[in-house]
Here is the input.
Amino acid sequence: MAAVGAVMALAGLILLFLGRTPICRCGEVALWHGQVNSSGNSQHVSDWYTFSHVIHGFLFYGLLWLVGRWRTGGIPLGLRLVAAVILEASWEVLENTDMVINRYREATIALDYYGDSVLNSLSDIGAMVLGFVLAARLPIWVIVVAAVVMEVVAGYLIRDNLTLNVLMLLYPLDAVRQWQLAAPPG
Here is the structure.
């Protein structure tokens, strides 16, 4: 746990050094911010993209479990968790560079995205830890169902999710972008 805390603290310091704001520029801290197309998105403790970070935890657990199978005796769970936190913290730092922020603005529906607050980034890492721990403790079918439900619900309600986010960052499709820009149902 000390190593996880140290990695998170280092990530927070790097993000501050990159110029990320500690909390939302609005001056408030909310546990949940559900408005995707707003300046408060990715600025508070949790938002619709928190579910993507839980899924990161599922995926990192599975990936590191597979890697551990190649090693005699496997890799201890604690070490796999630290590796997952390093991966997620690295993504949070990369995601908040000008290069990736500009890519989000060009290729995705995040037109007003200017980067995460440090609070949000650290909360995203915490959400990944939650996903990792759940994947370590629950049957695989529960994890698969949970991931699918999170993706479908987010996709339906906000027209974005982890799958669409990755697709649009790596291979933007105009048809998907137009669909995402349309008003969500309800």
Summary: The CA atoms of residues 103 and 154 lie 21 Å apart. The longest helix spans residues 50-69. The helical segments are 2-17, 50-69, 77-95, 98-107, 118-137, 140-158, 162-170, 174-181. The chain has a mean pLDDT of 93.
